Amino acid sequence: MSVLDHDDAKAFILHWGEMGTHWGVNRSVAQIHALLYLTDHPLPADEIVDLLRLARSNVSTGLKELQSYGIVRRVHVEGDRRDHFVAETDLWEMLMRITAERKRREVDPTVALLAELSARLSKDSSAPPYVRDRIVRMHEFISTLGNWYEQVRTLPKPTLVTLMKLGGKVARFVSPRKPKS
Amino acid sequence: MSVLDHDDAKAFILHWGEMGTHWGVNRSVAQIHALLYLTDHPLPADEIVDLLRLARSNVSTGLKELQSYGIVRRVHVEGDRRDHFVAETDLWEMLMRITAERKRREVDPTVALLAELSARLSKDSSAPPYVRDRIVRMHEFISTLGNWYEQVRTLPKPTLVTLMKLGGKVARFVSPRKPKS
DNA sequence: CCCCAGTTTCTGTTTTTCCAGAATATACCG
DNA sequence: CGGTATATTCTGGAAAAACAGAAACTGGGG
Known about the structure:
The structure is a homodimer. Helices cover 67% and strands 7% of the residues of chain A. Chain A is built from 8 helices and 3 strands; from the N terminus they run H-H-E-H-H-E-E-H-H-H-H. In chain A, a hairpin with a 6-residue loop joins strand 2 and strand 3. The longest helix of chain A is centred in the middle third of the chain and has 33 residues, at 91-123.
């Protein structure tokens, strides 16, 4: 008796797995996440193995990965020596943690590289000006996005929700010359 | 004589390629994009082949892909029968087009699936309530994000830039009870 | 201090993705 | 209407990623 008895749950897990592959997350990891997300009680690794038909080793690696994102955590279940796992179910929280971790892993190193290249290019008079210009602009752009993200991510969840519901209307605050039309 | 004579340009192109692989974009495609981004004049496919050491066929496929994202376009060069290609250099524009296309390709189908599953689960009394609940919440969440994105993306670029520079300060507009502290 | 359930790391295999070159198609010119 | 230059699609092989199973490790009992 598990969520996998339901075709809709199965469909969700499969889709989530595919989705993962399109965003650079391995299929098994995404499937494990989907399974835990749908389940309302902690699951031990063995059970994940049975349900998703994955090798024990992959489940172990996958769980480690999900924990490093902070969207799955180990919990202890009374009277069972095995580790059990549960997923974050607050979707805002989940999104924030995933984006934060991906920024750390991929965006930050990119910004670091761009900073280095920008610095070197500014001194190198043999570099074509348009190359320098484009690297510098890319650096500024990604840095700015990154800083914006770091600021926004610390806002309280309810504020974020409100802002999102506002949608395009936030623009009113910045361009007061443009009335409701 | 090309941008590839410069080590910094080379480094950028290689890094951009790797970056691609981490986000589900194939390395060649990302490299072609980086090369065109750094170059200040239209390049014909053959030249991309020489510069990046890729097969002609892959360059063709890659360019098609980049064009489908709308971040590279074909231009004609006086006195040359071959197609030439240039990349979008406005980074906001680039970001918007990439995100729009990825939403179309990956997020929209996901929302569609979630809608279907939600609908079916609401009628299926045999489904555990927590499964229904979690699918429904995921559906609402992603839909909301999607709608927010569609609204924001139509805002004029300068407005977006201003909003971004505001950073966390936008929160002031929504929670007026919290002064500057 | 040894045993054993539970977990992680390692290694060879399978699967998937990527890509070079060949084959095919399309546009342009005389 | 050929012929040539350019571009795209197809296909088999190479490279990379994912995975299963075995081996190694860990940490509580007894």
